[in-house]
Amino acid sequence: MMKIMLDAGHGYNTPGKRSPDGMREYEFNRAVANYARDLLANYNNVTVYFSHSDQQDVSLKARTDKANSLNVDIFVSIHANAFGSGGWNSAGGIETYVYPSRPPVAYQLAQKIQRNLVVATGLQNRGVKTADFHVLRETRMDAVLVECGFMTNREEIKLLRSETYRRTIAEGIVKSLAEQFRLQRKANTPAPSSAPPAAKSAPAPASRDGIYKVQVGAFVNEQNARELAERLKKAGFEAYINTE
Question: What 3-state class would DSSP assign to 130?
Fold first, then answer.
């Protein structure tokens, strides 16, 4: 049995963990954790635990103590990033952290998470880094911490608010866990889509005969959007780029 602990960083009431326009970081973190838990239910012999609570803020020590007492196999801490003194700025992208000793399994998983999230979102690749964070230092199992975009970036906060983007991040994390630990999908469960996932909502108008359009990708980087549109056109689909 593979035991996975998902850690939605911080809490509803954690001071300072908000975007300049008021989105609480925990709102994003918990949504990704919920999506990831649901996706992991499609795999055999996997048990998922949460370190966080929707009722109260949970201390870092309580989180790592819980992981250690349950003797989980891997600890994944989910966060949204921020830069500066509270205003908007241009810092952006995704980065993943492991403890400075670079435990081999944690480092391999971090590389997979980093690669999968950058490919799925088109955001800047800030790389796999090391840090002496409590959740990486005090856990007795392999642990990674992923920063999934910047709350202080005007474009990335739009993504962080999007349920589509939140699910995209969860899919990338779960895909990485499945690759790293060779998780086996349950019978009769749909395989993950091979198409590039959407990062934010950009619906095309429905035609008058009742046919609906389905978005398959959205990116901060315009070139990534255009490349996806060209691939769809070559595959025989109509493709639109919405710049809202």
Answer: strand
